[in-house]
Amino acid sequence: MRVQLADFVRGVKHQLSDVGRVEDYLTPAAPPYRLDRAELARLVAPLVDDTVECCLDLLSRCGIGTADITAAHATRAPDDGVPPALLDEGLQPLCWELPGDGVATLLRWLVEEGKPFAAGDRLALLRTPGGALVRLSAPGRAGVLARTHAEPGERVRSLDWLATVGLAAVPRPAPAWDGATVTDRYTLSTPSEDTVRVGWSPDGRHLATSSNQSPVRIWDAATGRQARTVGGDRASLTLAWSPDGERFATSGTGPKVTVRSGGGEWLYDLEGHDGRVYATAWSPDGRFLATAGYDDTARVWDAAGGRELRVLHGHRTMVSSVAWSPDGTRLLTASYDNTARIWDPATGAHVDTLTGHDSAVSQAVWSPDGSRVATSSHDKTVRIWGASHQPEVLDGHGFGLYTLAWSPDGRHIAAGGIGGTSVWDAERGTHLGRIDGPQRVQSLAWSPDGQWLATAGDDHVRVRRLGP
Fold it and tell me: Where are the WD repeats (predicted)?
């Protein structure tokens, strides 16, 4: 039976290489087993994550940073016949993984031949067949663009040898953050717990954390000391403060969301989802709540008493995040079906769909002025969407992303996942650097004044200032 089951699983997996959904039978008398690609991705994600964490730990023990590793597998040799002498010490070829089908058109080089660049600078601008703009980032070290091997208008592919660069020598291990000074404020320790959410109170005086093994913990943001716990012994996997800071909503492993007062008193429950709730968000005026769940829906609730107002159908699999626009007139959802959607919360009408990611979309957020949307994905990228529907692709992190947040002043985007947290310049699209720890970030949040970034994962939360 074990061999038969193994063959059956292997066969289902191989069928998903050709089709998006499989229905098969273990035995003629058994009910059908159904599996789609998104569900398979969700099932194998913990194994992939553990594998990546193991590799990162091995590199750390060897004193090697990820910025020191260069994967150069050229599938396209330069047309100009680069002589072997060009690859002397300090010079190396540059290749990039391209999104989607791995094909794009080079629009222009952003750095001229012979000119220097800083770590993480954008070197070239491409456009995919679908219209998305892709900027190719420099390595994690400063250097000089020695030669380019593709001309504007030329069609290029993943791992083509597009440029040769000279990189400045750096001591090992390389610093994890290249964009600015990082100042540690404190670390909130939650031993033996997997901290999955962190959030600031609207006045910035408190932090709340939730985990899969304990109730919500409230911390003094000035000192990092735990002030109290809320919710008895019930595990809390999501949390959201109301805009006035007088209430917060949490959910556990089941379909129910609980709303409590700021002091922890139970007020009411939201019941309607068929499965775990993954995200909760208050409307800017505090009158409504939105939730996202495993049952492929988002829902809108009356925050005065918990009455369900709307059920938003449209995603093909679990909805991973939900966010209100700053003016409260639109809802934004992300899903493991590789899309984000925009809705009218007043009517439940679907307004728009954002497509382009190659894997599950873990989170979607609005810019502070409401003019743009940012999405993070397991495909290792962040994308910024404007009115043109041609997203700007932000890469450079190198691992799957689980969460993101736009800074209150709109200048930066932080995203976290395997390998820590990356920060980008939101206007230029420049990858400023990656911050180590936690190594598996599941949630992050900027303080209301934008001075501090809290990152949650593993068994702790770190609070740090980026910059002087």
Answer: 188-229, 270-311, 312-353, 354-385
